[in-house]
Amino acid sequence: AQSVTQLGSHVSVSEGALVLLRCNYSSSVPPYLFWYVQYPNQGLQLLLKYTTGATLVKGINGFEAEFKKSETSFHLTKPSAHMSDAAEYFCAVSGGGTSYGKLTFGQGTILTVHP
Amino acid sequence: DAGVIQSPRHEVTEMGQEVTLRCKPISGHDYLFWYRQTMMRGLELLIYFNNNVPIDDSGMPEDRFSAKMPNASFSTLKIQPSEPRDSAVYFCASRRGTVSYNEQFFGPGTRLTVL
């Protein structure tokens, strides 16, 4: 079985400040990890993913995430927030076994960016 | 590419009525996923298909829900009879290939309101 926990359902930052969205996962096999973003009234869009290899993954719009196996974490960061980053962010895990082929999503974190 | 197409974008119906949601995946994608998003339960996988065959329907909430994929270009999710608790946003997503870290591309969703 696999699961994802996103710490903090709402995060608020000022424009230009660091963005940090937290994600911890549980998986019985080496996981594939994803961050998706959802803008209002739209579907989800892939920001970045970790498969194997380099643990620091860079995505679109200046976001990056680091896979830390020892901490079972995959936190999302951006050095400087922009107003356009305001959206809901979902962490997801895909693994093997009975969960193969399926994405399990966290509950989502709503990011608000203040001027 | 047109992306994943869903119709209708909004549906308002009365309790007891049949509801049919439609999805056209991206051409060449052989996996199709149906998700439901609610405030209370977040994003849930309902069912997914591979090459038009249902692989895992363990997320389908009850017998009132059914899904079909008669060909590679079309899938439906039907609710009969509908209930107010079915009100949610329903997303369709598609993916190419058997590798589970390939990106899932999401449609814009259908917002269903059951009165």
How does this structure look, described?
The complex is a heterodimer of chains A (115) and B (115). With 115 residues, chain A is mainly beta. Chain A has strands at residues 3-7, 10-14, 19-26, 32-38, 44-50, 56-58, 64-68, 73-78, 87-94, 103-105, 109-114. In chain A, a hairpin with a 5-residue loop joins strand 4 and strand 5 (44-50). Chain A starts with a strand and ends with a strand. With 115 residues, chain B is an all-beta fold. In chain B, the strands form 2 sheets. In chain B, strands 2, 4, 5, 6, 9, 10 and 11 form a 7-stranded mixed β-sheet that branches. Chain B is globular, with a radius of gyration of 13 Å. The N and C termini of chain B lie far apart (36 Å). The chains are: A mainly beta (115), B mainly beta (115). The A-B interface holds A 32, 36, 41-46, 49, 51, 90, 94-96, 100-108 and B 4, 31, 33, 42-43, 45, 48, 50, 55-56, 91, 93, 98, 100-101, 103-104, 106-109.
Quickly describe the structure:
The complex is a heterodimer of chains A (115) and B (115). Chain A is built from no helices and eleven strands. In chain A, 37% of the residues are buried.
Using brief descriptors, characterize the structure shown.
heterodimer, A: 115 residues, mainly beta, six-stranded mixed β-sheet, five-stranded antiparallel β-sheet, 0% helix, 55% strand, globular, B: 115 residues, seven-stranded mixed β-sheet, four-stranded antiparallel β-sheet, 54% strand
Distance between the termini of chain A: 41 Å
Residue stretches of chain B low in confidence (pLDDT < 50, at least 5 long) are: none
Largest sheet features of chain A? 6 strands, mixed
Give the topology string of chain B: H per helix, E per strand: EEEEEEEEEEE
Distance between the termini of chain B: 36 Å
The chain-level mean pLDDT of chain A equals 91
Identify the most extensive interface between protein chains.
A-B, 23 and 21 residues
Please give the count of helices of chain A.
0
What spatial form of chain A do the alpha-carbon principal axes imply? globular
C-alpha-based Rg of chain B, rounded: 13 Å
What oligomerization state is this entry in? heterodimer
- Structural class of chain A comes to mainly beta
Portion of residues within helices of chain A: under 10%
Q: What string, H for helix and E for strand, traces the elements of chain A in order?
A: EEEEEEEEEEE
- Helix % of chain B is under 10%
Task: Report strand % of chain A.
Answer: over 45%
State the total count of DSSP E strands of chain B.
Answer: 11
Task: Tell me what portion of residues of chain B adopts beta-strand conformation.
Answer: over 45%
